[in-house]
Amino acid sequence: MINNVTGNTQTKGAGASPKADPSTDPAAAQDRFLTLLVAQLAHQDPMNPMDNAQMTSQMAQINTVVGINQLNSTMEAMSSQFTSMQVLQGTSMIGRTVLSAGDRMGAPVEKISTAAFDLEGSAGDVQVKIIDASGKVVDTVKLGSLDAGRHYFAWDSSTYAGAPGVDPHSLSGMRFQVEAVNGTAKVASTTLSPNMVVATSTSSSGLTLELENGESLDYNKVKAVF
User: Fold this and answer.
1) Is residue 106 part of a domain?
2) Distance from CA of residue 80 to its chain's centroid?
3) CB-based burial label for 103 (10 Å; 0-12, 13-18, 19+)
4) Band (143; pLDDT cuts 50, 70, 90)
5) Phi, psi dihedrals of residue 46, rounded to the nearest 5°
6) What's the domain of life for this entry (predicted)?
7) C-alpha dist (Å) from residue 200 to 75, 218, 219, 222, 225
8) Does 93 reside within a domain?
9) Residue 208: which residues within 8 A CB-CB, separation 6 or more?
10) How high does pLDDT run on average in the chain?
11) What average pLDDT score do residues 116-128 get?
């Protein structure tokens, strides 16, 4: 298209940069404010002119609005980068075993299952009850006295005959219960279950781990990785 005034050739379509939305662009908002301020100064009442304090206050307000808009844009960019980092971090978790709150025994390796628990205080006698899918106690692991903190234990399932009609090699429903006492006082504990990560995903709540037992776990609920 030929410009009638200058004769310059202008091209439409390809190569044209998109225009910013004037309703959300901070620079456009600032320009509108300055235009209104100049018009207000030009048409103010000579007998009651705007004082410096009032003008300074208005300029401070628009600067605050512009600053907030710029901060929002920066935070959105940082959020996008953080999500990308989470996706990259998630791929490195696949195949790893994570520890989280739960009472299920870990998948057996050569008939040895493991799990863990946190003790809130020292205990003179600690026992772990192994419970099958029917709710029956099938074995007890005696650990003796333990200090406060995290403790791991192993259970040999080779002697477990299994419940009637249940494959003894299927230990997916096995759970455990911790009984800890210090003298006659009970010591509170939190059971922790190990599970392997088979997939990961992201959502509005952050990184989510898909576990081998079919459950999903928020990354911020992971107690340990090994």
Assistant:
1) yes
2) 14
3) middle
4) very high
5) -60, -30
6) Bacteria
7) 24, 10, 10, 13, 15
8) no
9) 200, 201, 202, 216, 217, 218, 219
10) 78
11) 97
In a domain, 168, yes or no: yes
Q: What pLDDT, in 10s, does the model give residues 58-80?
A: 666 666 766 676 677 676 666 66
Report residue 78 as tokens: 């940082």
The residues with which 100 forms a beta bridge, in sequence order, are 193
**Per the structure block, which two tokens stand in for 47?**
């007998």
* Percent with pLDDT over 70 in the chain: 58
> What's the farthest any 2 CA atoms get from each other in the chain?
101
Identify the CATH number of the domain in which residue 105 sits: 2.60.40.4070
Please count the structural domains in the chain: 1
Reported as type and span, the H/E element at residue 66 is helix 52-91
Sequence-ordered strand ranges (E) for 94-188: 97-101, 112-119, 123-131, 137-146, 149-156, 175-182, 185-186
Does a structural domain hold residue 190?
yes
Tell the residue number behind the tokens 């225009």, with chain if given: 19
Task: Residue 182: give the domain boundaries.
Answer: 101-194
